[in-house]
Amino acid sequence: MIELFHIWKQYQKPFWALSDVTLQIKDGDFYFITGPSGSGKTTLLKTIFREILPTEGQILINGVNILKIHDSRIYTLRRRMGIVFQDFRLMFHRTVFENVAVPLQVIGVARKEIRRRVFNTLQKVNLHQKMWELPSHLSYGEQQRVAIARAVVNNPEIILADEPTGNLDPELAFEIVSLFKDINRQGTTVIIGSHDRELIRHFGDNILFLQKGKIVGKEAHP
Amino acid sequence: MIEKIKFFLTVTGNNLWQFRTRNIFSVTIICLSFLTVGIFMSLSNNLRATARELSNNMIVAFYLDKSMPAAAVDALSQEVGKPAFVESVRMVTPEEALEKFRQSFPELADIVTGLKTNPFPASIELRVNGKASASGEVIAFVDSMKTRPGVTDVQFNQDWVEKMQGFSRLAGAIGAFMGGILLLTSFFIISNVVKLNVFARKNEIEILRLVGATNLFIRIPFWLEGIVLGLLGSLLSLGLLFVVINLFPIYLGASLGALQELLRFRYPDLTQAAGLLLGGAATGFVGSATSVSKFLKV
Q1: Angle B276-B279-B280 (CA atoms, 0-180°, nearest 5)?
Q2: Which residues in chain A have Cβ-Cβ distances shorter than 8 Å to B207?
Q3: CB-based contact, A215 to chain B, within 8 Å
Q4: With 80 as the cut, is the pLDDT of residue B53 above it?
Q5: Whole-structure pTM value
Q6: What are the structural domains, with CATH classification, of chain B?
C-alpha cells in the first residue's frame, strides 16, 4: 500500500507544487492522477519514486517511510517499481533487447534467464520480432511499448507512468493503457499521470483530480 | 557476480568503442608520457650498470718514473700488493702499454708508429676487491701513494664510478621530473575524457538510476574505462620502448662515437616493466575516479 500524508512541495516561493496531498493507494489498484498542466501530477509521481523530496509530509510504501531511506539505498526502492515516461527515456544506441534487459542486469540475473524473461515480456507487448532492432527504427507507439516492457520485466509491485500516452495518437494511447490494464490484472499496482479525459473516462477505476497542487476531487469506480 | 562482471566488461568495451576517437587520443598521450619515463629509466639503467661494472673491476694504475731503478720498482710492487683489498698486482712494461694503446685506439695507431721513442711509462696495475672499491681505506692508500718517490701519476677509476652514478641519478631525476609532468597531463586527459563520456551518457546513467542501479554499479564501467585506457597507453609505451632500444644503436648509436656506450639503452627489468603497467592502470583509475566523483552525481 502507498500512503501519502500531508505532502507539501515547494520549488520556489511563493508557489506550492503540492499542497497538503493525502492519499492512499491500495495494492493492485489502477489509479489515474489527472489535472491540467502544472497541477502537480509529475511532482506527485516523482515524490513516490523518490526522484524529489517533498518539503513536508510522509510517504509510506508497505509501511516503510521512503523519505527516511538513505540516498545510497534508494535503489532498493526503485527495484520494486517500474517507471514509464512520456519521452520513453530509452537508450537509442542499444537494441530493444538491451534496453529491456537493463533492470535485470542491474540485479545480476543470469544471462540465460535474462534472455527468457526479456523475450516473454517483449512477447506480451508484441515486440518480440523487433528484439534486435534499435529503438530509433521503431514507431512512437513501439518505443513506448519498449519502455513499458522495461518497466515490467522485473515484475515490480508498482508501476508509475507519467503521461505515457502524451505523444501518441488516440488509438495507440488506448492500446498502451490497455497494456497497463493487463499488467494491473496480474496484481501490479499501476499509477498513471495523464490529462487525457477520454482514456480516464474509459479506464479510470480510481481517479485523483489535482489543481494547483491540491486535491480537488477523487473518484472510485470499483 | 559473474554476470555482473560480464556486464561491466561488455559495457566498458562498448563505451570504449563508441567514443573511440577521443579514447585513442587519450591512449596516445598516456603512451608518450610513459615512453618518456621509460626512455630515461632505460638510460639511467645503463649508467647505473656501467658504474656497477666499473666499481666491480676497479683498477688503480701507478705510473712510474722512467729513471726508477728495477730494484725500487720490485720493492714498490711488493709493497702495493700487501693491503687486504688488493686482489692482484701486475707490472705493465712500456711495450705492453704501447701495444694496449694500439689495440684500444686503432685509428691512432699511425701516430705512435712514427715515434722514435716509446712515450708510455711503465706502470703497476692493482685490481681492487669489488666490495672494498669505494671504501675510504682504498682512497687513503691511493692518496698516500701519489707522493711516493718514483710515482709520477696515479689513475683511479673511482672518479668515473662516481661520475657514472651521478649521471645515472641525473637521468633518473630528469625522467622523474618530465615523467611527472607528463603523467599529470595524462591524468588530466583521462579525467577529461571520462568527464566527456559521463556527459555523453547522462541519459543512460539516468535510466540506470531509475531502474535501481547502485552507485557502484554505475561507476564501475567508468573506472574500468580509465584503467583500460591507462593500461593500453603504458603497454603501448613498453612496446615502443623496445623498438627505440633496438633501433637507437642502428640509426643514431654510431654517430655518438665514444659516448655510444654511455648513451646505450638497457631493457627495463620485469619489475620496472610491471611498474610502468601498474602506473598506467593507476593513472587511469585515479583520473577516472576523480572525474566520476566530481561529475557523476548519483
Answers
A1: 90
A2: 89-91, 102
A3: no
A4: no
A5: 0.69
A6: 2-53+162-295 (no CATH), 59-156 (3.30.70.3040)
